[in-house]
């Protein structure tokens, strides 16, 4: 009886949690939808849905006469122009309100179909949770955001294909929907071979017939535009923006950016397009026969993106659908592919990769690279694989008991004994730092406020008797060797030392890696709050105080110029000092984890030299260093409250502390990941 009551209670608790999760996810989806809609409608009528100018002329008068391609903005097929002109009239009359809400309904429709098309076996609970997750990801994706702002309709072919593959009954109905989608976006016709080679030949024939019928109707109605599109521009190639621009994420656009042109470029493009079609469609057929039709649809869409003469950002929604593929035998690797796709589809390439010349070809073609990888290279698991449903479980450490009963607050936050996926870690660190840099650069409070806060800090330091910045700054300037040393230390070790420590922990102490990384991340987030709430002028930017900027040299404070970093760095993000905060984090981590006394002492030299450098170069006040120490302490404290103690529970407890951490990774009992 007791067991039965416990089972019922556990089931009720699980249902309650699932219900709360479902409500929270739907709330997130609703907030994203409202935000996206409001962002469009807040724009003045002349600045939103700008691509509707194809149909709407001067002073809002609907332009029904003339060619669709006169303004070089419309890139769709003549059939798309024929169908969308009445819709453009509606958009013009309603100032885009109906158009915007119609786009929102299309996105919701795609999310509903995708959630119900996930490869089985999928529980009903998973399907219910998948719907708001899918809608949220769609709202965040670059193609949907572009469609909202530009007034584009490129998501319509995606919805038509999904409906044709998963919603309607009968091959003929499926073929009609695919054919209409191909008439709007010609490379969608690649779904006809997918149908043919998976046994749905009637659907394939109907798709081709519907495409021909719709295109013929447009040719009869708009013969001049049809000639321009199909013959003069060869299926739209060259229409709209420059085909070699970064917005064109197709093989053709990439080859033009690489400097190829003329017959050589066309020959290479055709050869690559044929190879991608062959490999991609073959893989799509294989996954469709395996029961993963949604993945097959996504791969075919990725092929269509790559081989299209022009694939603008609002036409790349197919790539996001590839997130449904499962990659990796280990549970710890399973999230790599979804994270890569989601980041590529939601963030600009500059945030994903460093600003290095050698990486420009990849950075400028991130979406094309993702499409080609999905279509031709990524080894998605078949449903027959034993790892499809049950990957190799992650091994977790058992933490030592905390001093307080309510710690950790997040008991499910468990540290992994094995190393996390390296590529995923590097990507998360890169994106996290990019976000930090953007927020830091945006957290400007004005020069007047920053200088007023600088005077406040100076007054407080005078009251405390710690206003030593001016004396140290001028003393270092007089000793040229000291000035050169501290300038070099200030500009050289800020990133190198923390990254080195993280690298060593990843390689040698994976059980401690996440603990150290989490504390550093919390400290950095708390510092951002300081930058927002308390913009502060460093000593070198305080007028009339006679500080010498040893790093940048003498400056005109009315119009300072600090070199290339001025455009990306907020000069008034001084409180707290992350220069000192990160160095203190390095020193504390080395102090706690280093096995030798001399290593611990050497590690403490880094924060000592850093605090001297930031004061000597007039880049920070002494209290900035105190603020940096405060956020680092809070970072370690938050990690302790949420995840518990750093130490692992050891069997028997007889090993000395010097050998405890090494034994923890080799002998600590582990708990298998939940199924």
Low-confidence stretches: 4-10, 561-568, 650-675
Biggest β-sheet, characterized? none
Structural class: mainly alpha
**Radius of gyration from CA coordinates:** 30 Å
How many helical elements? 28
User: How confident is the prediction overall: mean pLDDT?
Assistant: 82
Helix residue percentage: 55-70%
Portion of residues in beta strands equals: under 5%
How do the helices and strands line up, and which of them pair or pack?
Layout: H1 2-41, H2 78-93, H3 97-116, H4 124-140, H5 142-150, H6 155-166, H7 171-184, H8 191-197, H9 201-221, H10 223-232, H11 251-257, H12 262-289, H13 293-307, H14 317-321, H15 336-346, H16 349-352, H17 360-363, H18 366-376, H19 422-442, H20 447-464, H21 469-478, H22 480-492, H23 496-508, H24 510-533, H25 578-593, H26 597-616, H27 622-643, H28 657-667
